[in-house]
Structure formats: structure tokens, C-alpha cells
């Protein structure tokens, strides 16, 4: 059977890895190519690189970063951030990505999911969803776009199901409320999405311990994304996997 | 020199990067003479069955590739969709002819599992292939369709997803993998190195 995946995430701005809280207050966390190599050596199952930069200059630097990361990576590489068209996705694939994640552009133009899936295949088409609990209805989540600055009034769970119908191959599900807070993944969100949508779902936002990851897998996650937990050097991917094995999770050795 | 067949529909950056890390020179080609005579040829595959089969026909490479695959002295590696193209057809693209090197139809995973299969899974050589060098390992898969029955006259390895399916076959110097060796960590790199040497 498929193994639950551990995926370090690199948020890249202007050629450097950064980390923030609830998508704000970015601080420097290192060189993406170096970090990618370290995480692979430690046993990462996959790597996600998200372009969080806003300027065109930084976007071009991003392609060089992807090329540099690809050179040393013998595990899958997912790249996202600012992908607005099939052509954008093609540029990232040409630079060395294996999968492309789309977020705001897919919300604004859902046909982009279909177009990418037809052109590059479902296995390459990742729909990233930033979900925020509604203050007036806490068991519902709305889709946020533009790095979490814009509420879309769209139900996140329904959007995940629609992404599947349109040909997505995977969902990258980030809890906006938990991002960078170290208080654990939003498990209710994970359960709601994996019940409504049969695609593999990557849990993201809030991980601070192996227990958080065990919980996410128990609530239907196929993979867990984590950034701070690895960037801060408190635990390596290898440490995390060892503890997961002790907890009975069948990860890749 | 490894000749990678340029069907134009496959994302092959990861494969090229893997060969670069192993310091194995490669070249992207559509030239029938090169594909016929080269010591090592790769039929890559990411994308749709019909698009790949049509690309092979548009480049007039069908007979050249079939001849290679039936010559046990020539090293040929077929990856993912490249392996599926060895069959006669696929449920993915009804009515489209595969290469027909093995007498099998490629079918879709059942509804009981997530499709596509996306992630790491075990690859186990069949006990009948104990005399061949093919280490068991963990490999990265990204596929919705697969070969179920091992073809006559080939060695094979299996993987468990919606029951057992055939995740790799090999015969002479031909190796076909449903998984992506170029994305399967050290184990995959070693498999590529072994095939190329």
C-alpha cells in the first residue's frame, strides 16, 4: 500500500527560504538549494517549493532556484505560487518541477484545473486550497486567495470536490488559522475534505510535533507538509520518521 | 551515450537530472537511426496514452522501437507510460494501438482506491526471478492505469495497490518500470546506474 509521505516545504522569496506566521512577518530560513539537499538526505519523500514573491524580478530568480533544486533532487518536486496559466505551469515543469500547484488562479478561473490536467495529466495537477474557518459558522471554511489576504466566499470543502471533478490529482490543504502557529493541523478541516473528496490530500499549516502528524494521518491525510519544524533544526526528517514508525505509521524507510 | 526518445509529450527534466547526477551522458532524439543503433535508449512517459502513441507514429518510430524491444542485446528502458505502451492497448485511450510487444491490455485501478496512485510503494521481484539481480525497494508512482497479468517470457516485480499489479518487467537488456526510477531516491538512482552499465 502507499506510504504516508513527509514533505518539507520551502517558501521562497527572492531566492531565499522564508517563514512567517499566518502568511505574515516573513523571516529568513536559508538557501533553497542547500535546504532541499539536506531534506532529501534526511529522508524526505517529496519537496514542495512555493514562490511567495511578488515582483517579476523575483519570479525569474525562482526559475533558477527550481533548476538548482532539481539538479540534486531524486525525489518528486512540487512547485507553486503565482501560477496563472497553463503556460506558467509549463515553465515550471521545464525548469524541473514534477507537479505544479495552483491556488488563486484556479479559484478565479476553475477551467485552469481542467486545462492543466488535460495538458500535463492529473498526476501533475495539484490544487492548493488555503482554508479559513468562518467566524460566524466555525464548522465551515472559506477559501482564501492572494496569500490569504482575500476571502472568496467559496466553501473550501466543496471546492476540493469540484477540483477533483475537474481533473486535479492532489489537494494541498492549508489551514490559514493554523499556519505557523504550531498548534497542530486543523483535523476537522482534514476530515471534512477527505470525506468530500477522494483525492490524496496533503495536510499543511500548524505542525509542531510528530503527534500532530500522526493525528493528521488518522484523519485521512495522505501526506503532511511541514516547514518550521524542520527549518528550526529541532528535528530532522529522519527523527520524525523514526518516531512515526514507533507510532505505527508505515513511512518510507 | 543514452538516447532519450523525444515524444514531445513527456516531462523529462527529472530523468535528465538523474542521468547528470550519475554522470551518464544523454541526448534527446527523434532520429530513427540513432534509436535503432544506440547502445542505450529510453522511452520516457509522462502524459496521455493516445498522445504518446500518436507522437511515436507521427515520428514514424513505431517499427524501430518494436525492433529494439524485441532484440535482447539492446539496452532499452521504458518508464511509466513508456511501460504501458508495451501493451496492445489501454483503457485510458480506447481504440489507440500500443506497441504490442506484450500481449496485454492496460487497465484502470478500481474504485476502491484513490486514483491516481500518487506516492511511494513497495516493489517486490517475483520469487520466480530469484536468479536475476533486481533488488526489492520503495519506488515513487504516479499512475492511474497499470498492467495486471505478468507477460509470458518476462521477469517481473509486483506492487500492492488495488490488489497486486505488475510494477516492472525485464527481459534481456530491456527494462520497463511503472514507477519513476528518477524520482525514487537512492534506490532508483542505483537501478538507473545498473541499467546503464
Protein described:
The complex is a heterodimer of chains A (253) and B (197). Chain A is of the alpha/beta class. In chain A, 38% of the residues lie in helices and 27% in strands. Chain B is an alpha/beta fold and 197 residues long. Chain B has a single domain, classed as Class I glutamine amidotransferase (GATase) domain (Rossmann fold). Chain B has helices at residues 13-21, 32-37, 49-58, 62-69, 81-84, 185-196, and strands at 2-5, 26-29, 40-43, 75-79, 89-90, 105-108, 117-125, 137-143, 145-146, 155-160, 164-171, 174-177. A nine-stranded mixed sheet of chain B has the order 2-1-3-4-12-11-10-7-8. A three-stranded mixed sheet of chain B has the order 5-6-9, with no helix packed on it. Chains A and B meet through helix 2 and helix 3 of A and helix 1, strand 7, strand 8 and helix 6 of B.
CATH topology term of chain A: TIM Barrel
- Largest sheet, strands/sense/barrel of chain A: 8 strands, parallel, barrel
Whole-angstrom Rg of chain A:
17 Å
Strand content of chain A: 25-35%
Number of domains of chain A: 1
Q: Extract low-pLDDT stretches of chain A.
A: none
Question: Count of DSSP helices of chain A?
Answer: 10
Distance between the termini of chain A: 14 Å
The CATH topology of chain B is given as Rossmann fold
The largest sheet of chain A has its strands arranged as 1-4-5-6-7-10-11-12
CATH superfamily of chain B: Class I glutamine amidotransferase (GATase) domain
Q: Which strand order does the major sheet of chain B show?
A: 2-1-3-4-12-11-10-7-8
Amino acid at each position: 500500500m502507499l506510504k504516508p509521505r513527509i514533505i518539507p516545504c520551502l517558501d521562497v522569496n527572492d531566492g531565499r527560504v522564508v517563514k512567517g506566521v499566518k502568511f505574515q512577518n516573513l523571516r529568513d530560513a536559508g538557501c533553497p538549494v542547500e535546504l532541499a539537499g539536506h531534506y532529501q538526505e534526511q529522508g524526505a519523500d517529496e519537496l514542495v517549493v512555493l514562490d511567495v514573491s511578488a515582483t517579476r524580478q523575483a519570479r525569474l530568480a525562482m526559475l533558477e532556484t527550481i533548476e538548482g533544486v532539481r539538479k540534486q533532487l531524486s525525489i518528486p518536486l512540487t512547485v507553486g505560487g503565482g501560477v496563472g496559466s497553463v503556460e506558467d505551469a509549463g515553465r515550471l515543469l521545464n525548469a524541473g518541477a514534477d507537479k505544479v500547484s495552483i491556488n488563486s488562479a484556479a479559484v478565479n478561473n476553475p477551467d485552469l484545473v481542467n486545462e492543466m490536467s488535460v495538458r500535463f495529466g492529473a498526476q501533475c495537477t495539484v490544487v492548493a486550497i488555503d482554508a479559513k474557518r468562518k467566524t460566524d459558522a466555525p464548522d465551515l471554511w472559506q477559501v482564501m486567495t492572494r496569500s490569504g489576504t482575500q476571502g472568496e466566499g467559496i466553501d473550501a470543502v466543496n471546492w476540493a470536490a469540484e477540483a477533483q471533478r475537474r481533473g486535479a490529482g492532489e489537494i494541498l490543504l492549508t489551514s490559514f488559522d493554523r499556519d505557523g502557529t504550531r498548534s497542530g493541523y486543523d483535523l476537522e478541516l482534514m476530515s471534512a475534505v477527505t470525506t468530500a473528496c477522494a483525492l490524496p490530500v496533503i495536510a499543511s499549516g500548524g505542525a509542531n510535533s510528530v503527534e500532530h502528524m500522526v493525528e493528521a494521518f488518522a484523519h485521512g491525510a495522505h501526506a503532511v507538509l511541514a516547514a518550521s519544524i524542520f527549518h528550526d533544526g529541532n528535528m530532522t526528517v529522519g527523527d520524525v520518521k523514526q518516531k512515526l514508525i514507533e507510532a505505527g505509521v508505515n513511512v518510507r524507510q | 551515450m543514452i538516447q532519450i526518445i523525444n515524444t514531445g509529450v513527456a516531462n523529462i527534466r527529472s530523468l535528465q537530472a538523474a542521468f547528470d547526477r550519475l554522470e551518464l551522458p544523454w541526448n534527446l532524439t527523434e532520429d530513427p537511426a540513432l534509436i535503432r543503433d544506440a547502445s542505450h535508449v529510453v522511452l520516457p512517459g509522462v502524459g496521455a496514452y493516445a498522445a504518446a502513441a500518436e507522437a511515436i507514429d507521427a515520428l514514424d518510430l513505431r517499427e524501430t522501437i518494436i525492433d529494439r524491444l524485441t532484440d535482447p542485446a539492446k539496452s532499452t528502458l521504458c518508464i511509466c507510460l513508456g511501460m504501458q505502451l508495451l501493451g496492445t492497448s489501454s483503457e485510458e485511450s480506447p481504440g489507440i494501438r500500443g506497441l504490442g510487444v506484450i500481449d496485454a491490455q492496460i487497465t484502470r485501478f478500481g474504485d476502491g482506491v484513490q486514483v491516481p496512485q500518487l506516492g511511494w510503494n513497495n516493489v517486490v521481484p517475483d520469487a520466480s526471478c530469484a536468479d536475476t539481480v533486481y533488488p526489492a525497494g520503495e519506488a515513487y508512482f504516479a499512475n492511474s492505469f497499470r498492467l495486471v497479468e505478468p507477460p509470458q517470457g518476462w521477469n517481473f516485480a509486483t506492487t500492492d495497490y488495488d490488489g497486486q499489479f505488475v510494477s516492472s518487467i525485464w527481459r534481456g537488456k530491456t527494462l520497463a518500470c511503472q514507477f519513476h526510477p528518477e524520482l525514487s531516491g537512492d534506490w532508483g538512482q542505483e537501478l538507473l546506474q545498473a541499467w546503464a552499465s
